[in-house]
């Protein structure tokens, strides 16, 4: 499940929220859409002292795509908060000479 990124009025990043919570904030007029990809909302109020949890960026280089995930370090579980698969450029991989040791 992908979470929704949140920034306050001063464009300071806050903790990502569940999509249901983001929908409530949007429908009640407390937030607006900032970007569609990655989906990010901007709050209409500023947050004085936000409590931020540390997130870790994990990369998984595969043969056809590279997986990118944000993982919450505080929970101790490897549940990704945001996932993305970046395909490799096919012309950059084809026709390359393999190095022989």
TrEMBL record:
Composition bias, Basic and acidic residues: 75-86
Disordered: annotated span: 63-101
Domain RRXRR: 4-75
Pfam families: RRXRR (PF14239)
Domain of life: Bacteria
Name assigned to this protein: RRXRR domain-containing protein
Taxon lineage: Bacteria, Bacillati, Chloroflexota, Ktedonobacteria, Ktedonobacterales
């Amino acid at each position: 499940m992908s979470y929704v990124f949140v920034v306050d009025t001063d464009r300071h990043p806050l903790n990502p929220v569940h999509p249901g919570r983001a929908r409530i904030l949007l429908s009640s007029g407390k937030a607006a859409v900032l970007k569609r990809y990655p989906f990010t909302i901007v709050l209409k109020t500023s947050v004085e002292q936000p409590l931020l949890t540390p997130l870790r960026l994990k990369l998984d280089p595969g043969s056809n795509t590279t997986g990118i995930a944000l993982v919450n370090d505080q929970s101790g579980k490897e549940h990704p908060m945001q996932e993305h698969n970046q395909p490799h450029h096919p012309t950059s991989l084809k026709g390359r000479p393999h190095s022989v040791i």
